């Protein structure tokens, strides 16, 4: 390691990119590599038959991809995707909104929870094409650090997370729960949050955060 | 996941005409309807299901719940589980159905899963879900490693030497006691299938799970008029308190008059190769006093033909206690 020089820049931006920036940068680099590696897969998908009535029939079969428009957080995104793309992968990889997390990818953990037309759903168990033209809300659409959604503020106030990986899914579930039939006690909240697993075990604080919002609603 | 062609048919007739080209409506189908996707997309990721064409039926007008002129309820095949469970009439007249659905999966999955799809829910047997393993249900003739392997969660009723997989649905157990009818539209018209005739036992053909043929589209389910003064309970026992499949469950619809049971319908979940209606338990209970001794006798009758495997013998006593307790809860309610 080079000796530290007096004029080295130790500002956070220069030497210590924050964790999020580092991951986004690394992710961008990796995604580039993955796309290159997957190119043959896309090419092979051209063998897919394209008969009348099929979505995207008017497009070149040589690509194997199909057009789709999703309205995500109030903004329209039109793109071409492989038909196999899950809503989760579309939101994260194609659109680049990485707040929604991939946990198990098999509908067993809830990390990928988003809202579809206002109701919570698991984005890993749906194809993006099933939602063409529909309204998707991700955690990025709830609030901003300066103007948080009440559920986001309550999670912060109640320390309702530890590592944070499940948190966006927990918050999306919690926001939806506020509009669902739910009894007043903690047990009712826990039952309706049971589809969101937290390996850190922040459950007690998650319930407390949700109850705080419900009491002030 | 294998590549497929994604098709959104304009109407039911187009969906049925295309689906009729499928090689089968059972395991190995090269054409599948997709509704909520909660089972199918999962199995496609595992390469257990490998359709080359996927028919998206989410936009077909099959998502209504209506009263039937002759009484009873008509539930569209695309009604989401959460909408059905929270429907005021279902909560009032068919409580066992509401309870069963709300005991299954999670709110997110219930918002996605459809009634038609839930009728076709696939087993959670680990060998079925793992393409590296043999499985008679997935690949006929390859054998059943569950019989000598991990079978703690698998079935004890209705199994065969070829398959011991459990039907995992909660909704179906309630549909069985409510004596629902499944209405299917196919290439030759519409037909009504009594719930008990819809699912097949594994026998020598575990890859065949229902009576559906290529092109058959479930369009709605009907429930008979509610039974006046009936007491209804769905009780589910599992390894954790929520978001888990049943080790044993019981659905009961009970009518008591002057302390005696005048009518009862009983079905078990988590223990059968299909949703397990028990006429034996119903016969044992009808006309008997509504007390614990009668309930236990009914439970004994329900499990008389149970066949335990190496790891799931506990399910026999668990299912008996589950049914006994469900009957007690219903009688007290």
Distance between the termini of chain B: 48 Å
CATH topology label of the domain at 64-141 in chain A: Ubiquitin-like (UB roll)
What is the number of strand segments of chain A? Answer: 5
- Portion of residues in helices of chain B? 25-40%
Shape of chain B: globular
| SS content category of chain A | alpha+beta
* Structural class designation of chain B: alpha+beta
Number of helices of chain A: 7
Please tell me the overall pLDDT of chain B.
Answer: 98
N→C terminal distance of chain A: 55 Å
Oligomer: heterodimer
CATH class of the domain at 231-332 in chain B: Alpha Beta
Percent of residues in helices of chain A comes to 25-40%
Which runs of chain B of at least 5 residues are low in confidence (pLDDT < 50)? none
Task: Describe this protein's structure.
The complex is a heterodimer of chains A (217) and B (333). With 217 residues, chain A is α+β, with helices and mostly antiparallel strands. Chain A is built from 7 helices and 5 strands, in the order H-H-E-E-H-E-E-E-H-H-H-H. Chain A has helices at 12-15, 19-44, 87-94, 150-158, 167-177, 186-192, 203-216; strands at residues 66-72, 75-81, 113-116, 119-122, 135-137. Chain B has a domain at 231-332: Enolase-like, domain 1. In chain B, strand 10 and strand 11 form a beta hairpin. The radius of gyration of chain B is 19 Å and the shape is globular. The termini of chain B are far apart.
